[in-house]
Amino acid sequence: MRVVVEPDPDPDATYLEQRELSERRASYRRGEFGLLRVRAEAQILIEGTVQTLTSPGLSGLESDLDEQDVAQVAGEEWTALRDVLKAVGVPTKQLPLAVERGWIERRE
């Protein structure tokens, strides 16, 4: 299992069109930050085939978000993936209840 932090594949920055966010919108347009997606994933073997199961994921996070906030979202996604694994009958007793920072993978 791991948590992946990657560029949002379908970013929706329309929230930045609000008048009070004009400075933030300008920063976004200058490329000073982007939008991210955070999701947890696990590869499991089902009937001899490796399958990748993922948490629902959270998209639209600003890339300059504080690392503590990213870690919090990563933890929520980790918990969601544990629930997915349980739902399909994968034992989770051996899996830690909380994500460790070393399991958070940043992709460009």
If you had to describe this structure to a student in words, what would you say it looks like?
A hairpin with a 2-residue loop joins β2 and β3. The protein is an alpha+beta fold and 108 residues long. It has one domain. The mean pLDDT is 94. The radius of gyration is 16 Å and the shape is elongated. The protein has two helices and five strands; from the N terminus they run βαβββαβ. Strands 1, 2, 3, 4 and 5 form a five-stranded mixed sheet that branches. Helix content is 27%, strand content 30%.
Question: Which features would summarize this protein structure in a list?
Answer:
5-stranded mixed β-sheet; 108 residues; alpha+beta; 27% helix; single chain
Q: What is the element layout, followed by pairings?
A:
Blueprint lengths: L1 E6 L14 H8 L5 E12 L2 E6 L3 E5 L4 H21 L16 E3 L2
Parallel strand pairs: 1-5
Antiparallel strand pairs: 1-2, 2-3, 2-4
Q: Round the Cα radius of gyration to an integer and report it.
A: 16 Å
With helices defined by DSSP (H or I, 4 residues minimum), what is the helix count?
2
Number of strands: 5
**Average of pLDDT:** 94
Structural class: alpha+beta
β-sheet strand percentage:
25-35%
State the shape.
elongated
**What's the structural domain tally?**
1
**N-to-C order of helices and strands:** EHEEEHE
First-residue to last-residue Cα separation: 19 Å
Percent of residues in helices: 25-40%
Quaternary structure: single chain
Largest sheet: 5 strands, mixed
Question: Short summary of the structure?
Answer:
The protein has helices spanning about 20-30, 65-85; strands spanning about 1-5, 35-45, 50-55, 60, 105. The chain is α+β, with helices and mostly antiparallel strands and about 110 residues long. It has one domain (about 1-105).
